[in-house]
Amino acid sequence: MRRLRTGRNAVPTDEKPTREATASEGGGPVHVDGIEHPHDVDAPRGGVTSHRGVVSPDRRTGDSAGQAGNGTGGAAARVPDRPVRIGRAAVEDFAHRTLGPEHKSLPPAAWGATVREFLATNPCLDDFQTPLLTLDRATLDANLAVMGEWARRAGVRLAPHGKTTMAPQLWAEQVAAGCWGITLATPWQVQAARAFGVSRIVLANSLVDPVALRWLAGELARDPEFEFCCWVDDLASVALMDAALADTPGGVRVRVLVELGGAHGRTGVRRVEDARALAEAVRSSRRLILGGVAGYEGALAHDRGADGVAAVRGYLDEMARLHRDLTDLYEDFAVVTAGGSAFQDLVVERLAPLADETGSAGAPTAVVLRSGAYVVHDDGFYAGISPLAAGRADRPLRSAMHGWARVISRPEPELALLDAGKRDFPFDEGLPVPQYAGGQRFSDVNPAAQVTALNDQHTFLRLPGAAAGDLQIGTVVRLGLSHPCTAFDKWRLIPVIDSADAADPRVVDLVHTFF
Where do the record's region annotations for Disordered lie (predicted)? Predict the structure, then answer.
């Protein structure tokens, strides 16, 4: 282990933060941890990946800018064109954060150093303790490019689900790659994103918490460039939101999308006819703006079998029907949004034809895909179902995450126990898959090797036909993982390595998460 010097003896470095995105100033300062951060990272303009707004030009009580009585917004109405931003300085401030024992598996020699000081020592992967979750830099870059190009060609906008990683550093990379906005799942996640200056947020959920609604109203009133929308699926929610916002300062209005659900699915109005009544209630409310249609097709199928695909297509067709039925109610423009990371091809097939951002055939409409797992992908669930996985796409997504665990016990010839468990690696959508050990592929030396169970801190690795001397204690095993959403939430700090396939991977960055 190389020694790390800190404080006055710290290793000096003049290196600039890596992967600096295209940036511009504007939108006022961002405050994070009491520090003012005035600079922002912008999504690039131009093409299908340029930014469009999701709140009306005038959120306050009264007519929206460009609003016409027929609900189409008139000739002047169109989907606003403003790049999404995230506070660049707030993200770069991570380089100055101090490392410590709260960061799992970090080498103790790094405690007390800043991220920048530690990275200046050019650490290797084997400097870290196990268990460990890592991200692959080259694969992250490739996945960002693959998804951005795919969305551009498909004619849809991308608002990746930030709840997958809850990592502002990765959000900034998605913004720099041209995403339309950031999607989140809870009010607290929205608040965390606002702390890092994210200027366009889709809350893929209903918002009925009065405390959160009052915070939102204040945030919208404080920052006129903050654009936000959430979902609604019940008349009671409309009434609750309208009441909670009644006395907020500035007469702020909140944009909501009517959520359509499906039988045996999750949230969402079950019938188009009921959704129409809900939309009319939104239109009649004082504090809400009807802004489109939302849904999540991933709740209706968990494989690409014929029945699952048919269910997803039927559901998306109902979403399209609802949008067409609501055109006369839209005040200015509409957002139609769906798409997890399993059926985005079907979302494009069924919904992309609705895109009409200039309003040539009615209300200006943007179709927004919310896929979140693509930047990381996996070696399990998404590898088996994504239309952009290897074997289904010319330029496939690949897993940028890997688990690393050490053999700590060989109580039986055909059993190895590793020092990782449910508190370290995901297990809800499949168990880890052994890939490498001691520089050898499991597919070459023991293709039947299989993880059969995870305890809190132990992994059971079965080794059919193995001898007692195989896979010795102390050997580090690389594992393929399934479901990035439940991998990231177990780590506060995730090392980024140059390549997981390198003989001696180098750590090039540290990604902070907020769970």
Answer: 1-80
Q: What are phi and psi of 431, to 5 degrees?
A: -85, 160
Calculate the average pLDDT of the chain: 88
Q: Which residues of 429-459 are buried (b: 16+ CB within 10 A; e: fewer)?
A: bbbbbbbbbeeeebeeebeebbbeebeeebb
Question: What are phi and psi for residue 28, nearest 5 degrees?
Answer: 80, 165
Q: What is the pLDDT of residue 249?
A: 76
Asked whether the beta carbons of 6 and 117 are under 8 A apart, the reply is yes
Q: In the prediction, which pLDDT does 40 show?
A: 66
Q: How confident is the model at residue 57 (pLDDT cuts 50, 70, 90)?
A: very low
Whether 395 and 502 map to the same domain: the answer is yes
90 lies in some domain? no
User: What distances in angstroms separate CA 159 from CA 3, 28, 227, one per listed residue?
Assistant: 42, 23, 13
CA distance 62 to 67: 10
* 260 in any annotated domain: yes
Question: Is there a domain that residue 68 lies in?
Answer: no
Q: Once rounded to an integer, what is the mean pLDDT over residues 5-23?
A: 36
The DSSP secondary structure of 4-24, one letter per residue, reads ---GGGPPP--PPPSSPPPEE
CA 503 from centre of chain: 30
Q: What pLDDT was estimated at residue 76?
A: 53
Q: What is the mean pLDDT of residues 259-288?
A: 95
CA atoms in the 13 A half-sphere facing the CB of 508: 17
φ, ψ dihedrals at 305, nearest 5°? -65, 165
Residue 9 lies in a domain: yes
Looking at residue 491, which CATH number applies to its domain? 2.40.37.20
Task: Print the domain residue range for 102.
Answer: 1-36+95-121
- First-to-final CA distance of the chain: 30
- Written as six digits, the tokens of 369 are 């895909």
> What is d(CA 348, CA 313) in angstroms, rounded to the nearest whole number?
10
Residues comprising the chain, all counted: 515
Residue 411 pLDDT exceeds 60: yes
**DSSP code per residue over 148-190:** HHHHHHHT-EE--BGGGT--HHHHHHHHHTT-S-EEESSHHHH
DSSP for 284-352, please give it: H-SSEEEEEEE--GGGS-SS-SHHHHHHHHHHHHHHHHHHHHHGGG-SS-EEEEE--SSSHHHHHHHHG
Helix or strand run (H / E) with residue 38: strand 35-42
Give the bridge partners for 258, in sequence order: 232, 293
DSSP helix/strand/coil, 382: helix
